[in-house]
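Researcher: Re-running this chain for the archive, since the previous output was lost when a drive failed. Same request as before.
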Amino acid sequence: MAKRLIVFVMLGLLSPLAIACKWPEAESVRVDSDHVLFYRFAPEQPAVGEFFLMNLKFCRDGKFVDPDSIRADATMPAHAHGMNYRVTIAQAGHQIYEARGFLLHMTGLWRFEIVFKDGKKRRRVLFDYQLN
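Model: Regenerated structure tokens:
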């Protein structure tokens, strides 16, 4: 087992960040070589026209961290518009942030954007969600 793990790390298939930072039932997005964003929706499956929130955790160098600032939004690339509401973000626990106020008003492909500042550098994460 240990030999396989070393091979996966050497091949880049399983990064040290993925091993050290874990958050059950959350999705993850690699931001850059040092950062991973973990997120989960509440409720788990957002519905058209209903408010939902997103819980966020940020991992840097294999450890969860508190960013200096966070901003979140969602847009529909195919329609060139976003939501009609502004998302607010607050700390919801130890190194857990809650982005509240998402409302996706129509079905289709939505692109989420999370911008956070960690130290002197701003980082931007984009990921897509198909709302049916």
